[in-house]
Fold:
Amino acid sequence: MSEKIIYFDNNATTGVAPEVLEAMLPYLGPEYGNPSSMYRFAGASQRAVQKAREQTAALLGAGTEEIIFTSCGTESDSTAILSALRARPDKKHFVTTRIEHPAVMALGQQLEQDGYTVTWLGVDDKGRVNLDEFTRSLARDTALVSMMYANNETGNIYPVAEVGAICRERGVPFHVDAVQAVGKLPVNLEELPIDYLSMSGHKIHAPKGIGLLYVRRGTPFRPFLRGGHQERGRRAGTEAVPNIVALGAACELAGKHIDEENGRVKALRDDLQKRLLESIPDSIINGDPENRLPGTLNISFKNVEGEAILLLLDQYGICASSGSACTSGSLEPSHVLRAMGVPFTYSHGSVRLSLCRYNTQEEVDFVADALPKIIARLREISPYKD
Amino acid sequence: MWEYTDKVREHFLNPRNIGAMQDADAVAEVGSLACGDALKLYLKVKDGVIENASFQTFGCASAIASSSALTEMVKGLSLDEALKISNKDIAGFLGGLPKEKMHCSVMGQEALEAAIRSYRGEPPVPLSHEGKLICKCFGVTDEQISKAVRENGLTTVEEITNFTKAGGGCGDCQEEIAAILARTLEEMSGKAASRAPGADKDLPPGLGDLRKGRETAPVLSNVQRMQKVMNALEEIVRPRLKQDGGDIELVDIAGKEVSVALRGMCTSCPSSRLTIEGFVQQTLREQVEPGITVREVSQ
Structure:
């Protein structure tokens, strides 16, 4: 496509940063050595992986020995959860929430089939969990708690510090899916009581195909992939050197830009939100406006359908997502919006606009101008008028 | 993203015949906000011919495109011709729909049928009185499921979900859908009347058990009744009427009430009431079920 694209779907994936691309290219080209090899030629690969490990550990406030490179966020989630459960085979209770990413949700559903009891914590109309309810859910049989750091659809930030503290007090290990949070929020694992943490490269301007799992030192761990000594025996398989280098570079960049995310990007999001709410009647924000990722805006328009909105946005070159049934691949609106009890009149018409540091005020102006026209047009077609 | 044909995209981006029609002769609304799509269809009818059509649709691109296509397709058709439009025809007009989106074309067909029925003064929501609600998430009845199976040659529960949405929500009704599928397939193969209880070999694997219990049901299910009525009309009633230059058309079956329209010589025949009561109703009572009543509806 040669037309100009306005990419407001950065919670889905992000563009690879030029610096990241530059850093990884040699390892797609001349520096193809296997880090495990003995000769000098492999030394560059070996050192590059080590450097990336240091860069990622620095962003997270972790030790390099606590970092495991994986292929994606989903692998990190699966590895952490299954590993924690295998380490405590006598305990059969798993606690999570109703608003998790499918990577955790589907695993929880599978665990139920395998004989585990799963507590699915509900949320209120703003998508917030209740800490008292969480505390009450813990039992002597609880093997693991898994809660996302920030929600991909609404951008809501969850109280992982508080939840982690309660888990620690009760001696229950705690996994956090931080795929949406890392790079957008300061995450310091020196201070946070988190035992396992998942992240993904392609959400922070590294390419797809690289993830990371943090495992706090001393935490029981059972490898998911076996058969090699890589990652200190915790994740067998030859290292994806170019991707690992890219993740390291992306983490270093993210650390440098975290203030911009919470300053300029947040201001862009707030401006867009204000203008859309003012110019489009019957529009509501989904999520907790007081406690969201800086770039995420999930907004619903009454009596219109999300897929239709997305395809008309696409006509303007605007990329966004929706929680509507027609875009979710199922026939029901997003499980997150349903868990929040968003009424059908609004849940089918949700649009997620997610910004990053490469977005500009000019783009916000363009979307703030186009979207009201699109909603007006679809409402003209809609049989529902109030 | 969905792979839409150029024609779907074109009808979505430039929908024809949008908006409420102030002087419409027939209006019908199907779907709901909760389901995620809804269509309100307006028809202007003159001398039994659809002069104009317009729509209002809440839904995705393919729902809007299907509605637009439908209004273009029906213009200039007689009501009887329009009733022959199937959901397949709507999808075909658009060059096809992704299979997950076939329910959009079904919605168009249902709206058209409902509008014509309302114009003819027939019950506004056909079949819903007797049809059993199967999918509670999307409000789909057993008769709608059977119809989709018959008209589109569906063979799996997944296909039924694509066409009717039934079973696509919580999924609790999928076993019931499988049973309806089995029953309908069985009826379509014409073995409903003659088959011995427990002979499950014609069913898709695993469906045999689901259907047990219906075997001993003392009354006919709606679908069974419909099938039998259709067979009796086709095999006994129509050939007789045709000998006299007449014909009959099945309009609706709501519970045990069968609505028919007489055609050809029968329409002007002074003894048409006798034909209906003495011949058609009697035949159906003998062939199908004693409680059947037959009602003539004008076109």
Summary: Chain B touches chain A at residues 2, 9, 12-13, 15, 18-19, 29, 33-34, 36-40, 56-61, 63-64, 100-101, 137-138, 161, 165, 168-169 (CB under 8 Å). The beta strands of chain B are 26-32, 37-46, 49-58, 133-135, 140-141, 246-254, 257-264, 293-296. The longest helix of chain B spans residues 222-243. The CA atoms of residues 195 and 203 of chain B lie 12 Å apart.
